[in-house]
Amino acid sequence: MNRWDNFLAPYRQAVEELKTKLKGLREQYELSSKHTPIEFVTGRVKPVSSIIEKAKRKQIPLDQIEEDMLDIAGIRIVCQFVSDIDTVVHMLSEREDFAIVEERDYVKEKKESGYRSYHLVIEYPVHTIEGMKDVRAEVQIRTLAMNFWATIEHSLNYKYSGEIPVDIQRRLERAAEAAFNLDEEMSKIKGEVREAQEIITKKREENKPDN
Amino acid sequence: MNRWDNFLAPYRQAVEELKTKLKGLREQYELSSKHTPIEFVTGRVKPVSSIIEKAKRKQIPLDQIEEDMLDIAGIRIVCQFVSDIDTVVHMLSEREDFAIVEERDYVKEKKESGYRSYHLVIEYPVHTIEGMKDVRAEVQIRTLAMNFWATIEHSLNYKYSGEIPVDIQRRLERAAEAAFNLDEEMSKIKGEVREAQEIITKKREENKPDN
Amino acid sequence: MNRWDNFLAPYRQAVEELKTKLKGLREQYELSSKHTPIEFVTGRVKPVSSIIEKAKRKQIPLDQIEEDMLDIAGIRIVCQFVSDIDTVVHMLSEREDFAIVEERDYVKEKKESGYRSYHLVIEYPVHTIEGMKDVRAEVQIRTLAMNFWATIEHSLNYKYSGEIPVDIQRRLERAAEAAFNLDEEMSKIKGEVREAQEIITKKREENKPDN
Amino acid sequence: MNRWDNFLAPYRQAVEELKTKLKGLREQYELSSKHTPIEFVTGRVKPVSSIIEKAKRKQIPLDQIEEDMLDIAGIRIVCQFVSDIDTVVHMLSEREDFAIVEERDYVKEKKESGYRSYHLVIEYPVHTIEGMKDVRAEVQIRTLAMNFWATIEHSLNYKYSGEIPVDIQRRLERAAEAAFNLDEEMSKIKGEVREAQEIITKKREENKPDN
């Protein structure tokens, strides 16, 4: 096992376990006749090349990244409605299998760039073949529209090393507004949709053939 | 094996195989330094209760559903940009492992409801334990914004059995416009984003540590 | 959500999480250059029909099965060598994410039928959409040969409702002996094989092309 | 995409598709009330380091490995009974989604080392993002006991670079005999077990609760 594989093993394990846990919640919501606040869950371990690059950029010595780089393990929870974000944050804060050590609300206070998302940093205990280890992971919670826009912005930011030209910046802002509007329109129709979804799952249960 | 399990087994198999094939394409794009036209792929077999209900509604006798119900197996391919849809359709039409038997372009000509998507019906040969069988499957190709809206509309349509009240109809239209706008804004920024994504994947390959 | 789905949801979740955790250990062993004591891991929730039948047979009232039926959630860990079983049991007893509440060693003291396996009952905390819940699960640890035989015996036992005819009983005993012999021969070659496996994984790491 | 990733992409895709197809057959057998000849299916693409090493050993120039190395993509089908092997071979030879280009029966004629397995080389068409490509894959079909022994022998062979010392050779032979005996004893009880398994799955279907 080389150094990086060794270093990243607990992060990989944490991501796998957290995905299993959070996807399980989604399935339970689907089986119940309740609106699910979780549309989908993804997870990833930061590629080694990105870790190295970020360490350089942020001037973090490599023996400090465990402490100072908080997004080596990343979990993303994507929601249908803006109000689902609060539901998810509340649900996560009640859990006893990890501790929340940091919390940033970029939904209420979006970043200058237009970026919106709710961020948590958690400390999650993992059992590895070398014993137990607390692993830090960043959990991002956002709507589909926020997620869409953030993906785009991430790419452009990367291309221009954080210095996006003014005209592209402007186009990016208009896209952010369009995403925000979509979230707004969706919110207005939210109550209706939730009710509809509950009716669908109830009907499905009642109509289940007996085989 | 009960009647329904027996009837649905080849459909389940077709959905699994098509998901493996299409997700494989996405992974190949990610490994290459090309923009991937496939954001994600999902698939499902229609629940028995929905098959029965649709058969009643459309007055299809149960012994005719294999011929007349074309969406028992369903695959959805979701794209980042509107122009990716054409790329995907072209790629699917070149394949030799299934035949396209129907094609409907609700992107150029959206449905009255506001629904936009590109639909294909394919005929896909499956090997089951009882021999080979041609299975029909519906493939829906759409952007993230189209997908988002369609999910909402589907729920409401279901709730009101196709007769959505006028005020909700109007809110739904505004949401459709917001989704359309997001797609438009994204299109304007498309070239930039594609180029950025290609740079990212190239960098990642170059920077791969040697271990 | 019907009664059974509701009752079984936490068991399903526990099985998924335990599989992710234990398969993760196996992968960590594979990445390291150590012999892995875990050949493979499977898990299942007992089918409702089997729960009902067992409840009848053992005269457990349905409102008592949560307390009295300990194998509704089942995990099986299969090992290459008999001595791996102890390694796995030790590793599980060190974990802090569940408690071992019962322990039965049918390896040292095989059952009259010839059955060999190490059984643990654990109490595992699951977070569901309705809050936290302690779930009991049975963990069976056995070699490939023990597993092979046990599968066969289970089928025959079921067929004859526990009263296997004498001639088949005898054939089953000879199969148990053959399985036992295989385990014995494997034990004699164990040290050699372990060493060889460690060499292989080390070589693989060293020879990894730099891309 | 580096050279090796590029070269191996169609092999990876072939392995994924073949696993989906063959695991699907197993699931269909399980749903039916028939004995399944497939116990489990695994697949792997040969690690780059092993490809390079084998090319050196067998003196295959690197630009010839596509033609001359037939096990870059590998599928393994493991069976409960020796007679299941023929059932699987027959089933594969009937399929129209690949062609069998080579066939070796090391079950009837075991290798000098004691190795037993049925080998097929198939040619499987894969659609990649660069078009269609015929990929060769080796399919190994064997019982659990054959598989167990082969794993061990592979490790030792590797350790001693094909020249296993006489005393270890002898222990390996005794293990091969023990594995062969287990297969023999299992064959004698086969009819009984198959019948029992069919009874179990039938019962399970009948007893399914109506929900």
UniProtKB/TrEMBL annotation, chains A, B, C, D:
Pfam families: RelA_SpoT (PF04607). One of its GO terms (molecular function) is kinase activity. PANTHER family: GTP PYROPHOSPHOKINASE YJBM (PTHR47837). GO terms for biological process: guanosine tetraphosphate biosynthetic process. Its EC number is 2.7.6.5. Residues 8-35 form a coiled coil. Belongs to the RelA/SpoT family. Homotetramer. It is an enzyme of class 2 (transferase). Keywords: ATP-binding, Coiled coil, GTP-binding, Kinase, Nucleotide-binding, Transferase. Residues 43-164 form the RelA/SpoT domain. It comes from the Bacteria. This is GTP diphosphokinase. InterPro entries: GTP_Pyrophosphokinase, NT_sf, RelA_SpoT. Pathway: Purine metabolism; ppGpp biosynthesis; ppGpp from GTP: step 1/2. It comes from Salsuginibacillus halophilus.
